[in-house]
Amino acid sequence: MELGRYRLPRHRRALAITGAAVVVIAILAVAGYLVVARPSSSGTASSTTAPSSAPAPPSQTVLPFALGDPGGVGVDSAGDVYVADGAKDRVLELKVGANRSTVLPFPGLKCPSGLAVDSDRDVYVVEDCNKRVVKLAAGSDTPTELPFTGLVEPHGLAVSSGGDVYVADLKTNQVLKLAAGSDTQTEVPFIGLNQPFDLAVDSTGAVYAADSGNNRVVKLAAGTTTPVDLPFTGLNFPSDVTVDRSGNIYTTDLNNNRVLKLPAGSDTPAVLPFTGLFCPYQVAVDKDGNVYVVDYHDRVLKLAAGYQTKALTN
């Protein structure tokens, strides 16, 4: 599989259309099934359902970004959402309650892909075309370049609570770490990666990689040198991974048009109840458990916390 510059190539969309069509048909079938025929008093079937006082389940919404070729997505501690807009080489911020986004001051961006936000609300962006990682400190209008060297095709990005920065290089199949306060990178000891598309790091310092070419998600616990495969099954190009504050792990299963969640301490992943997804490839979770997904319809979807997951069937 050949990757494009800062996101999957457009021809991959064509490869995914068949699967997406099946998903749409399945969704329509489910929607029809929800109207259950009940016997009427005359013995004939009626499609009228009894009113219910139960609250409506949480639903997904499309956030008011105007995007073309979006890349990484992140959310800060205040609930503000950030997304890299590849078509216009910029990073957008949508503040809580706002109905339109604003452009952050990242001058000279070229092919922004991976994006991360740290606990101080600093924003980090990978520039694939410029082969670098830049940081915009909260409240600043002047980004700085981080001292990574030798990047060939950087893409995925993660930042720990302590300020350590990790970047995945698709071309060299490496994950590099820049410790907080250091100007010297080190290689993280992942083994056998094939197109690590994105990264995450949890509160314990464990690092996760969406090992897209191997259709797996791997975890390297802090202080260890042997990564382990997580029990996600049936993946077809997992393109992102993230971890929430409770330790639940999420991955975008791009070619299966779904987002999976592995609850903390569980070995049984489940499907998040998004509808109409088309090649979801980036995911973020806020402190309240709301889930944000970027898909190939050039949009950011938000699934409100309180949703019910569905069983994984394959």
Order the strands across the largest sheet as they lie in space: 20-21-22-23-27
In the CATH classification, which architecture applies?
6 Propeller
Helix content: under 10%
Distance between the termini: 23 Å
Top CATH class: Mainly Beta
Query: Secondary-structure element order, as H and E?
Result: HEEEEEEEEEEEEEEEEEEEEEEEEEEE
Uncertain parts: 1-7, 9-52
Can you tell me the overall shape?
globular
Number-wise, the strands total 27
What is the CATH superfamily? TolB, C-terminal domain
CATH topology: Neuraminidase
Number of helices: 1
Provide the number of structural domains: 1
Strand content: 35-45%
For the largest beta-sheet, the strand count, sense and barrel status come to: 5 strands, antiparallel
Topology:
Blueprint: H1 10-33, E1 38-39, E2 45-46, E3 60-62, E4 70-75, E5 81-85, E6 90-94, E7 102-103, E8 112-117, E9 123-127, E10 132-136, E11 144-145, E12 154-159, E13 165-169, E14 174-178, E15 185-187, E16 196-201, E17 207-211, E18 216-220, E19 228-229, E20 238-243, E21 249-253, E22 258-262, E23 270-271, E24 282-285, E25 291-295, E26 299-303, E27 310-311
Antiparallel strand pairs: 1-2, 3-26, 4-5, 5-6, 6-7, 8-9, 9-10, 10-11, 12-13, 13-14, 14-15, 16-17, 17-18, 18-19, 20-21, 21-22, 22-23, 23-27, 24-25, 25-26
